[in-house]
Amino acid sequence: MHLAPEVENSADAPDVFGERILQVKLVDFWKRQCLTTRPEYDVLAAQERYDKFCTEFLLTMPPAFSLEPDTRWDSRLPKLGLQRQILHIAIFDSLCYNFRPALLQDCTQVELLPGYKQVLLSSHKKALASAALKVLERASTLHNMIGESHNRYPGIIIPTFEAAVPLLCLCADPGFPGETMDACLTAGRPHPLLTGMANLTRNECIQAIKDAVERLQALAELSKMAESGAQALASLIARIEFPSTQGQHQSNIIGTIDPTIQLIEAWKEEQMGNIGGAFTVRGTNSTFPVNWGGMEDLGESSWDKGSLPFSDI
User: Where on the tree of life does the source sit, at the highest rank (predicted)?
Assistant: First the structure.
């Protein structure tokens, strides 16, 4: 459907509702994958979900919305770039959710895993970091595109906070990302996290966290949500910048990860009531795209754009 007069006679123009349709398809995909928030992490199941995501979702995206997009329509559809960034944030946020349980594995249990699973688990941690970095990158781009007139927009604040948290957890390990050879996440074909994993450095992750804190602090003047997020991240970042002695290595990791995971859940629960319906799919038990589990009756849903700052996107 083409409602924009700039493209009404162009059959191959992007659908004006393309981003919304893809958001629904994205939720529907993860709904079918039986995601769990339990601490037990099945590395093979997580890998299978990622493989399916690359082949069943990413390869079917329209060119204008793909991760390597065709931008020839951007000049004629000014909101298309904004839509693309919002969708990409949701995509990489969902990948963070897929790999996040890798953070919770106890080292003593990991040592009992077969060697190939240990390598795969290490790769999944790097994949999580790569996905989180891409969320922060897209959130920064979106913020720059819409300017400072939408400082309360939760579509920037929440992804920024939630992507910084797993990076904090990963960097709590002074040895991250390590020198272990990565497992090939998708056999014989490229995948969206490949480049980020290959070039991942600890300094890059720490700098991204600092940039996220600065962004939230800049937004905090007009947003209590951003203020609380910035304070929470700032209270934890010193732990990874000044690690303790090697003998306390394991206790430091667990001591940072456990309260940080609790922090994100408590912060999310507190802040969700303030979002005012943004990105809510009516008829469900969850808010989209922050929570990727428990979506019900999606086929009967309709969009409530709520407090979106640019309702004409």
Answer: Eukaryota
Q: Encoding tokens for residue 5?
A: 């007069």
Which whole number is the average pLDDT over 138-163?
A: 86
Structure tokens belonging to residue 161: 């906070």
Is the pLDDT assigned to residue 149 strictly greater than 70?
no
- Which pLDDT score is estimated for 279? 32
Domain membership of residue 5 (yes or no) is: no
Range of the domain at 25: 16-300
pTM for the full predicted model: 0.77
- Mean residue pLDDT across the chain: 75
